[in-house]
Amino acid sequence: MSPSRFLPVPAWARHYDRSTLGADLLAAVIVTIMLIPQSLAYALLAGLPPEAGLYASIVPIILYALFGTSNALAVGPVAVVSLMTAAAVGNVAASGTMGYATAALTLAALSGAMLLALGLLRMGFVANFLSHPVIAGFITASGLLIAASQLGHLIGVPVSGHTLPEMLASLWNGLPETNLPTLLLGAGATAFLFWVRGGLAKILQKAGLSQKAATIIARAGPVLAVAVTTALVAGLDLEAQGVAVVGEVPQALPPFTLPDVSPSVLAQLALPALLISIIGFVESVSVAQTLAARRRERIDPNRELIGLGAANMGAAFSGGFPVTGGFARSVVNFDAGARTPAAGAFTAGGIAIAALALTPLIHDLPKATLAATIIVAVLSLVDFSILRRAWRYDHADFYTVAATIALTLLFGVEVGVSAGVLLSVGLHLWRNSRPHVAEVGLVPGTQHFRNLNRHDVALHDKVVTYRIDEALWFANARFLEDLVLGRLARSPEVTDIVLMCSAVNAIDLSALESLEAIDKRLSDQGVRLHLSEVKGPVMDRLKGTHFLEHLSGRVFLSQFDAWCALCGSAKRAEPAAE
Amino acid sequence: MSPSRFLPVPAWARHYDRSTLGADLLAAVIVTIMLIPQSLAYALLAGLPPEAGLYASIVPIILYALFGTSNALAVGPVAVVSLMTAAAVGNVAASGTMGYATAALTLAALSGAMLLALGLLRMGFVANFLSHPVIAGFITASGLLIAASQLGHLIGVPVSGHTLPEMLASLWNGLPETNLPTLLLGAGATAFLFWVRGGLAKILQKAGLSQKAATIIARAGPVLAVAVTTALVAGLDLEAQGVAVVGEVPQALPPFTLPDVSPSVLAQLALPALLISIIGFVESVSVAQTLAARRRERIDPNRELIGLGAANMGAAFSGGFPVTGGFARSVVNFDAGARTPAAGAFTAGGIAIAALALTPLIHDLPKATLAATIIVAVLSLVDFSILRRAWRYDHADFYTVAATIALTLLFGVEVGVSAGVLLSVGLHLWRNSRPHVAEVGLVPGTQHFRNLNRHDVALHDKVVTYRIDEALWFANARFLEDLVLGRLARSPEVTDIVLMCSAVNAIDLSALESLEAIDKRLSDQGVRLHLSEVKGPVMDRLKGTHFLEHLSGRVFLSQFDAWCALCGSAKRAEPAAE
């Protein structure tokens, strides 16, 4: 195992030249400008002081650049993970206390450790158990929760709670205390940002800019909103009129911090950390894959786990909170021409400079502006079309999505995503436990066997053939037993039962024991059990057991062989059946 | 829905005649004789007073006879469920206290309610998720735990704990206080019962009895052991020498009792009750099915749930504890000729007479004798051959069984069976998430396509065909994406990828979205995606979506069609490839 397995830097560093450096530097400047207001805003969303957002965008980015495999992924605080952080940490400590910030560090450390463990054990596949509909439902519901949580900042009243009813109730109660200057600033910023997102890019394109350039400039809209509203607050002294501002932010590089590793805190944060890890990983890896595929590159999901794990560990020890790869900023990074992970490292440098030099400038930045950037960003996550798609494709999927959305809104992010995973896995298991089985007959004039309910096929009154369209395993073993024995109880004249196994991809030990039990019970009743078209790998396993020796009937290579051997008189019987 | 759906009595009652009555009565007498010592012993195992065992064999049996569907199943206290009761109730109250007996009633009520709910919702399928290897491992480990727990009674010292290390440690500490008369009685009874089980039946057969009669008489061995050791204790006044006896047992019919429904107790007992319900149901239904099949009868698993639920509810309100269908006694009932559930009702009558009239006779019955009957009965449950079978068939199954046995012994029944279920379901999901996929080529001179690693097949350098041997669902959707995109990254010359779907039994919404993503990414790279041999039900679903419109390639009816259309030049190219 080469050292580059865990430290992929050399792979790209060897070919690093001046032109790559130029491309990476340009992308880093653009992403830095975009990331500053985002970092502050997501720290606010997580219930943390603004500098935590900047710190979470320095060390983690560098560590991801060292260990990750995506050339374009931009790591840092993101909306959904920040919301999940607020929900998890809020159960351990009150916002604004030292315990709260420390719990956020612990959450990042736990999540980092879990991601590293999954990566080192090459267990990236666990993320596969988050189905697309569950993710889509969860992200949509989270977007709504995030928007609701930020509405308070827009009108200058505090919003508490981690579920939609709680948030709306506290918003409603706070409505009479609305602060007018805050509302004006907030509404203005929101309207401006919506316009930037929708109209500005088009105007810029008409003015002759390329689509890419126009989109990138439009992404910098939040910076303009920040600058203008900050200037307004400073110029009109709106802070005195009750407009909440970011305030004093230390002018410093990230501090060295230690997470709280007391067992009670770890126990309380373990499940949220797992959910954050999985959600963050899935989000990140799908962005990274999308961008890699555009350049015919590949990413390695298990190394991505290590990269994200290292990034979160870094966040835990440098005053941050859980981070992951962000969609919007990675796309900007990619479009701006980032070619290697070094672009990320340069971005970290840019943010570090901001943390050292620019923090006095944001003293008067109104929180309403940050809330506006969050609201505009997350509303693009809200997409109910998954409900329509799921309903059309499969009602069961629809119920899973609907339950995920409803539970997330009503009971919070942890309950929502857990329930979604359990529901979708349970649904899959339930379906697997009720395999599709067709009683088949011979299509006259051919060697094909088809479902007797769908086709006009020849049958034999003493020979019953079932085609099983599913692997046989413990949860459906009894189903087959019930089916065969039930059929026999109804048709005592049957002498032979054939199981056509062309679609049986596996038979586990429980299913084998069921087959033995079925065979035993059938022999007790003088009925023989046969198999046909058993797949190679399945046959290999069966040959290692005594099942084939004891089998009352035979194993036929093809179903047609079985028909010929067992229904020799069938062709003569056929006219009578017509 | 006819009333007979839940109350099946009329079905057999209509045809009830004198000869059936005679057969049922004879079976009832035999089962009653066998059930009396068993009931007392399993009450002891559950940590309850002996009369609880008798009470658990009266009302529950009558209720099962009314609602169950098996003609032979004998319901009452059984070893594994009694052990699980002791483990669960021991966490709520100390043995011998009123709270302990009440908690046992609560456990029976909870279990009854769960079984009834599962039956009414027709959710008997949940029991299918207990795989054969997990059950086999769990029963074997439980047998060892039960034997260990009874060894103390055999030497006259108390054994505490619910795990093997705890029990062995307390046994070791108690060893110096061994009571010699108890040890002699216990060892004698154990040796006698082993001999009865092994040798007596053969001797009786040699003496001219039929095998059935010999086996039934041998089953009455415990009654003889009870009679002789009781007489010894009474005659030699061994109680004064420290031999623990059953003591005062009230001479009464079952009392009316009420379970404790305080939320804290219900919460503590909910998981154990669920496990007891599932284990009890699985045990019971497999016995019932085996016996029904011998007479070409059928049982209805969902009505069995209702029958067992009613029985446990009955136990809760009549001084009992959780019950289920016992294997040994049901076989005796069947062999003795029981024809209808009325045999069960008559057995209940027999036990009721015993509870009213015979309890003074068992005052001097030594607990060591009861422990001996339990040890001899449960050691037949211990069967490590499942380990060898599982190892041979599939190492993964072996690890599941081994973990179930080890965890049950080391951490008790609840941890053991829960871990077994989670492991086996997890293993299934893991396998399902890594489908078998083969790259296939044309077998020359045929229309068949086979795995290129196993067969000498014709290939085309620009067309890659994968045969997928698994339903596509969310957990393996990403696997397919990785596979296809990885292949393409390695072979940039490829222009067409065909997915051969002959063994794809289903495609869920996540997998559909993955297919769309794969198609999109392939088109971005100028590669077309095709499908072949899509099954009817899957095709029906796909037709309801936009996938087929947007698909860059085509859907071919057969893989050979795809080959002909895409590899038209293949036959010319072939010689060059050789």
From TrEMBL, chains A, B:
It is found in: Membrane. Keywords: Membrane, Transmembrane, Transmembrane helix. One of its GO terms (cellular component) is membrane. PANTHER family: SULFATE TRANSPORTER. It is a multi-pass membrane protein. It comes from the Bacteria. This is Sulfate permease. PROSITE patterns: STAS. It comes from Histidinibacterium aquaticum. The chain crosses the membrane at residues 21-46, 100-121, 133-159, 179-196, 216-236, 269-293, 305-323, 343-362, 369-387, 399-425. InterPro entries: SLC26A/SulP_dom (IPR011547), SLC26A/SulP_fam (IPR001902), STAS_dom (IPR002645), STAS_dom_sf (IPR036513). Residues 453-552 form the STAS domain. One of its GO terms (biological process) is transmembrane transport. Its main location: membrane. The keyword Membrane applies.
